[in-house]
């Protein structure tokens, strides 16, 4: 790995890494894409030629240094090449979310003043055409898939292949200029600009330099010992920083192969065919997969089902220990080996995860059962904690030190500091340069010494040195007695039960915690069907005494688990109720991305919150609801308030009881 | 005018030079429609004493979407069966690509570039989507039994070439994710799309669709409409369709033939047909 040391000296940009890879790994595959039913592949040498031809084409169209080039579409080699080609020309690629509506795109395109847009297909082209009158700097659009484009006005519209052809034709004319621009790329020049999704206010353009991306890629690749033989499946949005780090940063640094699926629907099949060795998925993907496995196992024959459950029980007890390299008895190892042959191996193969050496999940909390299920199968699934502003990596879990409730140790090169209010700050070579054209926000987020506020509250576990994230910093409060109150931490624990869809925990400034619970109609309805419990409506099912008992069981289990945590044992739930309606974005109770709007819920259901604290056994309430067509109606219900057992802990909150 | 055929994704184009008649018309959305591809002259079809079709004449032009509509039992499917050669008309003449078409077997007509889908789905339920669509290439396979059996030489090269065409159709109709799924396991709307794929795999110059939207929900209808328009636009394929959903017919087609009790009661662009009193009567019902 001699080339690793060159990082700081010779290799100061992605195009420079491309040049090195074309020399070092020339005949190894760099990209694959499934198209027309077979995997088409391009070696590093071919990739360099493709990118160069497109870059020449861009010069031919008049791309200037420092221009912004927007890239919109699903993961395809051509779009990755477009980004690197733009860099080669000294321009800045700006990948955008392909599922964004035209108006959302308009903001980003206007904000960065993109002169060029590279769009995957007719759908994306149409969106840009819709808004192009308001984009004053926009000049040319290039599309990849020519389908349906024949009758469009081609004065400002170009076919990807023809731009490449023009580039090849103009090779002699522009190659000098291209080489000069490529060689002038500096370590602190902008590598890419990514828009944050913007849950609060307008999206912000995060500017990341070559240094940010390359240093981060280098450090993280060394951390997990990634080599040129890795296979990854690129299926997460290209506008997301994670995809840029995995599919460009690390891929170009280590020279591994990026595989693009045929379409979003074929992702699972393509995953199975590629069998990646390095894999990333948000918790949602793992949850869906697990639910599918469980449903299919319920439909399997008695023998197969029995075998599955027998070996999975065994895997849950010893699987994670074997993976962590801890001592396990010989007999247990033999049984695990048999299980691998009978169940785990075939299952992993079906999931496309047989070859996963390093797997990551991040973005939100993952349920411990889900996490342990995959670890039990022998899949090295780990967690990491990151942000766009950090070029992804803030903390990550090293091999053999993986647990569901922490996010790991600081990534190589990252310093972490916890402020007095519990907020996590970090400083690293990956820390972003600035928010584009937004000095104010930049100053709010990043201080003069380079420390960046994450907005999340957390703490380091003293025994292991692992970071634990408990909540958004602004949601973390204090209870009446001064104990730490972290609602999301408890809500997440509750939501890991399939029967619970949503939970809202109250307790800031109070002496004890209480909760609203939303049942999951699919899971609870399924249970009711199997147990011959008749119900006519969501409301009736939610108020059924047996359902309330089940939920009480879940709440008490959570209480026991929370009690084990010395800092948060005050957050146990004393009383709860099951809501008579599902929390809904149409009623303003959730955001469009299904995040709980705590304040609005507390105001809207003020009578219920009062009842939770004044000791009444039940409460009559009327709630206004909005139907999908905009009409409004009222739901009336009498809700039973349930008491849950709390576990006396050592914390001062319990002592006050 | 061979509209769009030079852009065809299919390799060879057998349709070129087919039509000598160059007079055409321009549609409302600006597409150039070519000369007459098929002409039906005074067609009558009898089953014993029953007259299913009575003295009907109309033409189908190169590149247009031509709809045949009418109430139940009007004789629409019989008309389509005459065009596809499944029925031989009792009286009248059928001119195709400038020549009078003698009575032919359906496979001979298929070889002449006519493909169709069926009102009741007619796929091989036990076979995968891919295999079903491959059957659409049957008219393009010429290797002998020995070569086929040994999977060597001509048979193998042919299969690769045909598979490429089929994969392009699969890509075009966006059914990659069900490529290896047995057709029997698919929902109705997708089966209809597979049928369309099989018809397209034959690289037809004329595509006959018998109630392509029957039994579909709104979303599936929208998808299917989009695909029909795309096929016509992208490959210049002439499309003849029977459909009950008036909204769909009026939106999709360039010209409409209206039938009732085996007779033609209207013929023209959708707007004209919509105002035709005979057509209104046929649909709203008056005593005959």
Describe the structure.
By secondary structure, chain A is of the alpha/beta class. Helix content of chain A is 40%, strand content 22%. Chain A contains 22 helices and 29 strands. In chain A, helix 12 (302-323) packs across helix 14 (368-376). The termini of chain A are far apart. Chain B has 2 domains: 1-113 and 204-216 and 234-288, 3-Layer(aba) Sandwich (Rossmann fold); 120-202, no CATH class. The model of chain B is unreliable at 1-21 (pLDDT under 50). With 288 residues, chain B is an alpha/beta fold. In chain B, the strands form 3 sheets. Chain B has a 6-stranded mixed beta sheet with strand order 8-9-10-5-11-12, sandwiched between helices. A 4-stranded antiparallel beta sheet of chain B has the order 4-3-6-7, with helices on one face. In chain B, strands 1-2 form a two-stranded antiparallel ribbon. In chain B, helix 3 (129-135) runs parallel beside helix 6. Chain B is globular, with a radius of gyration of 19 Å. Chains A and B meet through loops of A and helix 5 and helix 7 of B.
Short key terms for the protein model shown above:
heterodimer, A: 657 residues, alpha/beta, Rossmann fold, GMP Synthetase, Chain A, domain 3, 5-stranded parallel β-sheet, 5-stranded mixed β-sheet, 22 helices, 40% helix, disordered N terminus, disordered C terminus, B: 288 residues, 6-stranded mixed β-sheet, 4-stranded antiparallel β-sheet, 10 helices, 12 strands, BCA_ABC_TP_C (chain B)
Biggest β-sheet description of chain A: 5 strands, parallel
Helix content of chain B: 25-40%
Low-confidence stretches of chain A: 1-8, 650-657
Name the shape of chain B in a single word.
globular
Q: For the residues shown, what is the average pLDDT of chain A?
A: 89
Major sheet of chain B: 6 strands, mixed
Query: Could you tell me how far the N terminus lies from the C terminus of chain B, measured between alpha carbons in angstroms?
Result: 43 Å
3D shape of chain A: globular
**Which ranges of chain B are low-confidence, i.e. pLDDT below 50, for 5 or more consecutive residues?**
1-21
- Provide the CATH architecture of the largest domain in chain B: 3-Layer(aba) Sandwich
Count structural domains of chain B. 2
CATH homologous superfamily designation of the domain at 2-279 in chain A = ANL, N-terminal domain
SSE series of chain B: EEEEEHEEHEHHHHEHEHEEHH
Radius of gyration of chain A: 27 Å
Structural class designation of chain B: alpha/beta
Computed structural class of chain A: alpha/beta
The average pLDDT value of chain B, as a whole number, equals 85
Overall number of strands of chain B? 12
Instruction: Briefly note the CATH topology name of the domain at 2-279 in chain A.
Output: Rossmann fold
Percentage of β-strand residues of chain A: 15-25%
CATH superfamily assignment of the largest domain in chain B?
A: P-loop containing nucleotide triphosphate hydrolases
InterPro entries (chain A): AMP-binding_CS (IPR020845), AMP-dep_synth/lig_dom (IPR000873), ANL_N_sf (IPR042099)
GO molecular function, one term (chain A): long-chain fatty acid-CoA ligase activity
Protein name (chain A): Long-chain acyl-CoA synthetase
Organism (chain A): Salipiger thiooxidans
């Amino acid at each position: 790995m001699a080339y690793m040391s060159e990082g700081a000296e010779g290799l100061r940009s992605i195009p420079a890494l491309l040049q090195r890879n074309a020399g070092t790994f020339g005949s190894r595959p760099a990209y694959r894409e499934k198209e027309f039913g077979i995997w088409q592949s391009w070696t590093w040498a071919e990739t360099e030629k493709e990118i160069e031809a497109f870059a020449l084409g861009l010069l031919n169209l008049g791309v200037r240094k420092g221009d912004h080039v927007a890239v919109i579409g699903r993961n395809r080699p051509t779009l990755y090449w477009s980004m690197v080609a733009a860099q080669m020309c000294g321009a800045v690629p700006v990948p955008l979310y392909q599922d964004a509506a035209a108006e959302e795109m308009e903001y980003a395109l206007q904000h960065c003043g993109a002169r060029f847009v590279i769009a995957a297909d007719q759908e994306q082209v149409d969106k840009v055409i819709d808004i192009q009158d308001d984009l004053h700097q926009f000049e040319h659009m290039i599309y990849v898939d020519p389908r349906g484009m024949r009758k469009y006005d081609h004065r400002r519209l170009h076919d990807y292949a023809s731009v490449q052809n023009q580039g090849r034709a103009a090779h002699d004319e522009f190659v000098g200029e291209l080489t000069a621009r490529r060689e002038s790329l500096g370590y602190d020049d902008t590598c890419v600009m990514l828009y944050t999704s913007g849950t609060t206010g307008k999206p912000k353009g995060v500017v990341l330099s070559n240094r940010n991306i390359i240093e981060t890629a280098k450090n993280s690749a060394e951390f997990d010992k990634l080599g040129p033989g890795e296979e990854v499946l690129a299926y997460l949005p290209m506008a997301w920083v994670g995809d840029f780090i995995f599919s460009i940063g690390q891929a170009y640094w280590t020279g591994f192969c990026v595989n693009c699926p045929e379409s979003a629907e074929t992702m699972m099949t393509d995953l199975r065919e590629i069998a990646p060795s390095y894999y990333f998925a948000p918790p949602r993907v793992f949850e869906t997969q697990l639910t599918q496995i469980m449903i299919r196992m319920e439909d399997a024959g008695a023998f197969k089902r029995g075998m599955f459950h027998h070996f999975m029980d065994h895997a849950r007890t010893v699987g994670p220990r074997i993976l962590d390299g801890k001592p396990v008895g010989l007999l247990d190892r033999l049984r695990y080996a048999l299980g691998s042959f009978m169940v785990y191996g075939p299952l992993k193969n079906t999931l496309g995860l047989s070859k996963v050496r390093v797997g990551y999940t991040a973005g939100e909390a993952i349920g411990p059962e889900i996490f342990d299920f995959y670890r039990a199968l022998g899949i090295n699934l780990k967690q990491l904690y990151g942000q766009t502003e950090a070029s992804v990596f803030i903390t990550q879990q090293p091999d053999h030190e993986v647990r569901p409730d922490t996010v790991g140790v600081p990534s190589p090169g990252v310093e972490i500091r916890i402020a007095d209010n519990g907020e996590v700050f970090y400083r690293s070579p990956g820390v972003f340069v600035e928010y584009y054209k937004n000095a104010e926000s930049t100053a709010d987020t990043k201080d003069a010494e380079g420390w960046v506020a994450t907005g999340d509250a957390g703490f380091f576990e003293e025994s292991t040195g692992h970071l634990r994230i408990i909540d958004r910093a602004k949601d973390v409060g204090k209870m009446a007695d001064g104990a730490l109150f972290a609602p999301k931490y408890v809500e997440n624990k509750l939501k890991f039960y399939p029967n619970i869809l949503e939970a809202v925990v109250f307790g800031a400034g109070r002496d004890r915690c209480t909760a609203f619970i939303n049942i999951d109609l699919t899971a609870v309805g399924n249970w009711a069907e199997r147990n011959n419990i008749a119900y006519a409506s969501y409301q009736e099912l939610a108020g059924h005494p047996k359902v309330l008992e089940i939920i009480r069981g879940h709440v008490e289990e959570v209480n026991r688990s929370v009690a084990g945590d010395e800092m948060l044992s005050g957050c146990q739930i004393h009383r709860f109720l099951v809501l008579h309606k599902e929390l809904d974005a149409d009623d303003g109770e959730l955001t469009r991305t299904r995040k709980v709007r705590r304040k609005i819920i507390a105001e809207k259901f003020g009578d219920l919150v009062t009842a939770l604290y004044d000791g009444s056994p039940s409460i009559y309430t009327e709630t206004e609801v909005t139907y999908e067509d905009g009409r409004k109606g009222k739901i009336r219900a009498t809700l039973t308030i349930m008491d849950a057992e709390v576990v006396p802990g050592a914390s001062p909150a319990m002592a006050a009881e | 005018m061979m509209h769009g055929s030079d852009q065809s994704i299919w390799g060879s184009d057998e349709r070129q030079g087919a039509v000598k008649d160059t007079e055409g018309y321009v549609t409302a959305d600006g597409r150039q429609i070519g000369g007459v591809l098929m002409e039906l002259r005074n067609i009558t079809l009898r089953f014993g004493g029953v007259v299913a079709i009575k003295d009907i004449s109309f033409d189908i032009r190169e590149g247009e979407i031509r709809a045949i509509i009418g109430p139940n039992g009007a004789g629409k499917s019989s008309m389509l069966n005459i065009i596809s050669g499944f029925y031989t008309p009792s009286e009248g003449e059928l001119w195709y690509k400038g020549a009078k078409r003698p009575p032919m077997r359906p496979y001979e007509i298929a070889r002449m570039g006519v493909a169709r889908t069926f009102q009741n789905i007619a796929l091989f339920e036990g076979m995968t989507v891919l295999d079903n669509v491959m059957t659409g290439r049957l008219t393009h396979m010429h290797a002998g039994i020995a070569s086929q059996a040994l999977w060597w030489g001509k048979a193998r090269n042919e299969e690769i070439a045909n598979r490429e065409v089929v994969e392009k159709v699969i890509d075009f109709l966006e059914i990659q994710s069900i490529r290896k799924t047995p057709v029997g396991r698919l929902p109705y709307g997708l089966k209809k799309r597979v049928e369309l794929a099989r018809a397209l795999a034959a690289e037809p110059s004329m595509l006959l669709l018998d109630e392509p939207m029957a039994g579909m929900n709104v979303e599936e209808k929208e998808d299917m409409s989009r695909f029909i328009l795309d096929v016509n636009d992208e490959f210049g394929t002439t499309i003849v369709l029977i459909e009950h959903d008036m909204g769909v017919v009026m939106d999709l087609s360039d010209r409409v033939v209206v039938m009732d009790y085996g007779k033609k009661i209207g013929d023209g662009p959708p707007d004209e047909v919509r105002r035709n009193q005979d057509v209104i009567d046929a649909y709203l019902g008056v005593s005959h």
